Structure formats: C-alpha cells, structure tokens
Amino acid sequence: MQHVGRRGGHAATVGLAATGAGLVILVASRVGPRLRGATPTERAGPLPGDELVSAPTLVATHAITIDAPPATVWPWIAQIGQERAGFYSLAWVENLAGCRIVNADRIHPEWQSPALGDVVRLHPEIGLRIAVLQPGHALVLSSQGAIDARGEQMAGQGFDFSWAFVVRADGEETRLLTRERYAAAGPAGALSTRLGASISTAMTAAMLRGVRARCAGR
Predict the structure, then answer these.
(1) What is the three-state SS of the chain?
(2) Which of 34, 52, 53, 62 has CA atoms 20 to 30 A from the CA of 46?
(3) Model-level pTM?
C-alpha cells in the first residue's frame, strides 16, 4: 500500500498543519449532545475495508445512533469530500490547515454516484481513493493511490491509512460507524498516527453529530 506522509489522513493533515488547534478541537468535541461511541462488539468486529491495512499499529472505531433509516443517512456519506459536501465537522478548524472546506446542509444529486477508484480529497493537496464501495452500506477510503494537488501519486514515508464509513440498520434507527486503521512506518510515522488519532477523535465526534443533525433537518 502507498505510504502517505504526515498529511496522509484527514486528522493528520489538521494535526500537523495546525497543531496549535489541538486543544481547541478537544474542547469543542465536548460541546453539544454527548456522542454515544462504538460498543465493545462494534470495536472488535470486522468492518468493510479492514483488509486494506492488514497489520495496523492503531485502530480507532467511532459510532453514533441516528433517528432515521439508513436510506436517509447514506446520501450524506456518499457526497463527502473537500471538493464536494465537506465532512460535516469543524470546518473552521480544518480550514486553519488550508483545507478550504464548506460543509453542505443539503443532499446534492450530482454527488450521489461515487465509484470505486474515485478520488475523495481531504485537502487540496491530498486525495484518497475509494477502495471499497457498497452503495447504501459502506464507503472506504484508502491511502493506496493517494494523489497530490497535481494529480500525481503521493510519495513519502509516514503511515498507511484507511477510513471506513459504514451505515447499519438498528431497528428503525441507524448506526453510523467510522473506522480508521493506521500502519505506522518507523518512529516518525508512529508519532504522526498517535497525534492524528487523538485529534481525529474530536473531529469525528463533530462529524457524526453533524450527520445526525442534518438527518434530523437541523
């Protein structure tokens, strides 16, 4: 799998380009409705895309319950991306790192047909690939084939990375799960993954709440 540099994941981009914002993010993650995280069973269980990083050095699984059916939740996931609907998280923090994200508050029909191999940008200089796609259920981004702003394959040492979004029916509600899997390359990569995962906890909490609010029409 292609190694991405210290900006190789969404959280790592924010962490390394704007480390001073870390405390702000961690405080912000505690504002608003409390996030009901992944259960032990969800954390231990397999998710689509786990095979993309087969020997991870760090795994982070997050989840939230949304009072809406999967068919309402999935369109928000289908359109994620820096050049599309954003990530429904703390855009002002992401934009401190130059992400240039504007979070959408509606479903865009023109962004509802993601395909395997499509580029989903996290930052103008970082694009991951859709490596697993199960429409209505799962979308997984991978550092394999990651590209830069010029559309050229990214090089460098840091860590391999996958980012899964999984929509599951839970009675009349939906469980939305995310999972990041990192495989660090050397001490520098290990440091990057630890920093990235710590900050990502806050950013993911905000993102999941953002999806929930949009599904509720707020």
Answers:
(1) CCCECCCCCHHHHHHHHCHHHHHHHHHHCCCCCCCCCCCHHHHHCCCCCHHHCCCCCEEEEEEEEECCCHHHHHHHHHCCECCCCECCCCHHHHHHCCCCCCCCCCCCHHHCCCCCCCEEEEECCEEEEEEEEECCCEEEEEEEEEECCCCCECCCCCEEEEEEEEEEEECCEEEEEEEEEEEECHHHHHHHHHHHHHHHHHHHHHHHHHHHHHHCCC
(2) 34
(3) 0.81
